[in-house]
Design brief:
Layout lengths: L25 H8 L16 H28 L5 H28 L11 H4 L10 H26 L4 H26 L5
Helix pairs in contact: 2-3, 2-5, 3-6, 5-6
């Protein structure tokens, strides 16, 4: 009786789990990633109107820089009995608005655009105005008005973008939350104002 060779054990590869509805399979994801790599972070699944988003972000960028400049002017020009406390707010807000401008500029570049920092057209493109204010109370009031303008313009941008560009939406939501805090700070100041 001859011995028959033992049958080779074959280990079957486990079947790849199927993707839930709405998900792209790995092979397609990998192939798509190799296309148009010069677009960087912008892949075929980006569904927002990129040119419009960049235009909106550049308008927001102009607004932030106008606010930075106004806050710094108010910081340096503030005088009177309440000046020290109010100056600290102006400086803090100027620095936060400048950080907002940086976030917006970086996102514009990620989307394949160019941040428009042309000083000749900055105030024309800004939603907020550059109002100097005649005294400390006027400065606080003008900054409150500018923050209210920013709040409404950021809400409109967030609603327009929706879920088509979640990264930009998150950036705008972060900025909006800080603009609301700024407005609350200035409203509180005006509410308890004593003097001029």
């Amino acid at each position: 009786m001859s011995k028959q060779p033992a049958a080779k054990k074959t280990t079957a590869k486990p079947a790849a789990p199927s993707q839930p509805a709405g998900f792209t399979d790995r092979r397609t994801l990998r192939a798509n990633a190799r296309k148009s790599i010069e677009d960087g972070a912008i892949t075929p699944t980006y569904s927002a109107d990129r040119k419009t988003v960049i235009k909106l972000l550049n308008e927001a960028l102009a607004t932030e820089w106008v606010c930075v400049l106004r806050y710094y002017r108010h910081y340096y020009m503030a005088k009177g009995m309440l000046a020290d406390a109010v100056k600290a707010e102006f400086l803090e807000h100027a620095q936060q608005e400048q950080a907002h401008a940086g976030m917006l500029a970086e996102r514009i570049v990620q989307l394949g655009g160019e941040p428009d920092l042309n000083p000749d057209t900055l105030t024309d493109r800004s939603h907020a105005e550059y109002k100097e204010g005649g005294n400390l109370r006027d400065m606080v009031r003008e900054n409150l008005i500018a923050e209210r303008i920013a709040i409404d313009s950021y809400r409109e941008m967030i609603n327009f973008i929706g879920d088509k560009d979640t990264t930009t939406k998150r950036i705008l939501e972060h900025i909006l939350a800080q603009e609301e805090d700024h407005a609350d700070d200035f409203a509180d100041m005006l509410d308890g104002w004593i003097g001029e």
